[in-house]
Automatic annotation (TrEMBL):
Pfam families: CBS. The lineage of its organism: Bacteria, Bacillati, Actinomycetota, Actinomycetes, Kitasatosporales. Transmembrane segments: none annotated. This is CBS domain-containing protein. It comes from the Bacteria. It comes from Streptomyces qinglanensis.
Length: 142
């Protein structure tokens, strides 16, 4: 059985909710990623309180006329973050991503700490055949 831990890209880097968006964008560039989990600095376990994407920064900050050096990652986080257990199987991963139309899914361990992220690229590289990938894309981008 293929699990989320088998699929994920390990070694996720957090950004605290208090971090400015310009610094978050720099981290994304350095790490060549399009999203970062956001940690809650008021939580002693620094659990995830959201996720920000490069698109969030561009559309919801810069294009809105806001200064990314003055807006924090926490200000852009909305709603309940979606995640999946490292032990979840491939069908659970697909269901979560398709149901919520998300392209990046944080993976958590038993202590509810983010240990990786699954992207659509991770799924397409080794885990889905062409027909499954087409169905996934149709659901997520619908």
């Amino acid at each position: 059985m293929t699990t989320a831990a088998d699929i994920m890209h390990p070694g996720v880097r957090w950004v605290p909710a208090t971090e400015t968006l310009d610094r978050a964008a720099q981290l994304m560039r350095e790490m060549d990623v399009g999203a970062l989990p956001v940690s809650d600095p008021n939580d002693p376990n620094e659990r995830m309180c959201g996720i920000i994407t490069d698109r969030d920064i561009v559309i919801r900050c810069i294009a809105a006329g806001r200064d990314p050096s003055r807006v924090t990652a926490g200000e852009l986080c909305e709603g309940t973050p979606r995640w999946i257990s490292a032990e979840a199987d491939l069908s659970e991963v697909l269901r979560e991503m398709e149901t919520h139309q998300i392209r990046r899914l944080p993976v958590i361990d038993g202590n509810k700490r983010v240990v990786g992220v699954i992207s659509e690229t991770d799924l397409g590289r080794h885990h889905l055949n062409d027909k499954q990938l087409a169905g996934f894309v149709e659901q997520v981008y619908a």
